[in-house]
Hints:
By secondary structure, the chain is an alpha/beta fold. The chain has helices at 14-30, 33-41, 45-48, 64-73, 79-101, 114-117, 162-171, 183-190, 201-209, 245-254, 274-283, 335-346, 358-388, 393-400, 424-433, 440-466, 494-504, 537-541, 557-563; strands at residues 5-9, 55-59, 152-156, 175-179, 213-216, 227-230, 263-266, 306-309, 328-332, 352-355, 475-479, 508-512, 545-548, 567-569, 584-586. Mean pLDDT is 81; it is low at 1-83 and 88-139.
Amino acid sequence: MLIHMQKINHGRDENDATAYAQQAHQHTNTESQQQNDDYHSDGLPSAQRLDDSNVAVLFSSLPPLAATRVEQAVTLENARIFLFARNLLYLLVFVTSALWTAGGSVPARNTVSPKNANPLIPARPGSIIKRSATELMPIDRKPEFFKGAQLKVGIIGCGYVGLPLALRFAEAGHKVTGFDVDPHKVSMLNAGKSYIEHIPQNKIQQFVNSRHFSATNDFAKLKEVDAILICVPTPLDERREPDLSYVEQTAISIYPHLQKGQLVVLESTTYPGTTEELVLPILEKSGLRCAIAAGPENENMACDFYLAFSPEREDPGNKQFGLAQIPKVVGGLNPPSGRAALALYTQVVARVVPVSSTRAAEMAKLLENIFRCVNIALVNELKQLSLRMNIDIWEVIDAAATKPFGFMPFYPGPGLGGHCIPVDPYYLSWKAREYDFATRFIELAGEVNTAMPYHVVDAVAKALNDHKKSMKGSKILVLGVAYKKDVDDLRESPTLKIMQLLQQRGAHLDYNDPYFPKLHKMRHYNYENMKSVPLNPQTLGSYDAVIIATDHTSYDYAAIADAAKLVIDTRNATRRVVRHREKIVLC
Ligand SMILES: NC(=O)c1ccc[n+]([C@@H]2O[C@H](COP(=O)([O-])OP(=O)(O)OC[C@H]3O[C@@H](n4cnc5c(N)ncnc54)[C@H](O)[C@@H]3O)[C@@H](O)[C@H]2O)c1
């Protein structure tokens, strides 16, 4: 609607209001009038942050400065008459223009294919909606609104992905609300505390204090934000099939509060089609529409809200590439949605890479992770062959990596871990079945990688045997339960499987991990009563074997080799250790 009643809170945030007034003024001087009009009519942030106290009702289609002056000129006595008359005038203009663009008939808002008209029936590939390129967008907030304005951003799921993203938006000056179903996390965040090792407490505290960040489990507050970013888990279920219940539940939490002109972006890793087939129909239960469309003729098509997919590339603990440096891929459900997401992320990352659809963006993330999964499987297999051939695979990889083109090193280990690589490829395998397609590389890589913990346990049994010991009854210490070094993340860690297999074969087990003082019950494992044992020469020397499962930087590997009777090294963490090489078994 061109006529759109909005409230401007003149006294709400003086700094913001001044900044936007200056911005608007500079804009008039430097940009074309058309762009300037767009800028104002998009609705400046101060025109959209609502606060019930001290508000004046204005028409957002006026530039805020002009609107403010008009509002000041209107006396209390004639204000109602003036606003009513102007309202009528704008309504007349809107109806006339709508009739004109529709060739004489009022267009159905956001016309969609009959299939897509029912919000419960998922859209299918190829359901591209053809629209007139000249059709007006029936909302005030154009995609470009998300660029250059201070935004209210809602992030759903404050975990390893959502929390850093929230802090990055806060750092860029936006007002961020983290939504999470875990009340413990919500209260920790509001107290300025961190529950993720590599996210410093003072960073959260700083943004909580400056009121750029807060957390809540009240989803009604989604109404207040401009953009909603979904960062909830996408695990596999018991049958290793995609478990999209978190995404589905999140969409169900959003739709009753969905507002016109809001941008919703799914960031959770998933199979191509999820945004269109699962998220969109649920959001459209709100009565608002966002059609699937592509191509230049749909550049300015109508949509009530924007919907996009942008995969997260967060690498927890990576000190070289932080969120701001990692390019972000975005794909919109339609061109305006793509532009809105592009505009949003341009504010917080160095480079945004637009693709033509949500499905392409979803597939891009899976390609990245499948590429990793398959290559890790390749080196894991070559490691086993190399061990048999008495060749040091790590030396081989380092030598091959000197080739300046066409080779990228991947390193073997005790198996795949983390929330992504062991999980994501199966999202695609599952979806591929719908198309009568077998993803053989994924299956083969899965087979090799899943066998790695068994390979480690066989290597431990052989090493103990060489020391005239049986696995049954032996005392074994496992170093590192996190799935990779220097992180406090246990998810899908191969160490958990290795521990289970060792216990099944009768070993007495302890572990040490500086990031996990104790363990707990998990979906597949129960290590409820285990506590990290302290590391000192006496304890190390008391075990029949010490397994280096995760190569945390804080471990002193030379001291470990000095004190232990036998070291099984699954990561080549002892590569620089020169003493007692005879005690070290690489596997
Ligand atoms: N962890 C990574 O390194 C990484 C990297 C790239 C992509 N991803 C993807 O990002 C997504 C999120 O992963 P993560 O590692 O941040 O997960 P996480 O488990 O660390 O965090 C998810 C958060 O969502 C919350 N949550 C669950 N259901 C919710 C709901 N209905 N409403 C609100 N909050 C809810 C949980 O309480 C939790 O705090 C996944 O799809 C994952 O595959 C993760």
